[in-house]
Amino acid sequence: MAYKHLIDKDRCKGCGLCVIVCPKKVLEISNELNAKGYFPAHQARPEDCIQCAICCTMCPDVAITISEIVEAAEAQK
Question: pTM here?
Fold first, then answer.
């Protein structure tokens, strides 16, 4: 199974809680501002993400989601 990790950059306030709790140090605070004037979190090393969802649980703004991607071969069954 494959998963997609998504951070809604315009919802993120850049508090850094997700960065602190990430066990693989995948997340960092961006150098670019979002639409609301915050520096949002982003996946600096997405290849290291283990989809543990600790960042999703910790985010007070519910800006991070991890969802399962249905493979094209499975969808045709």
Answer: 0.83
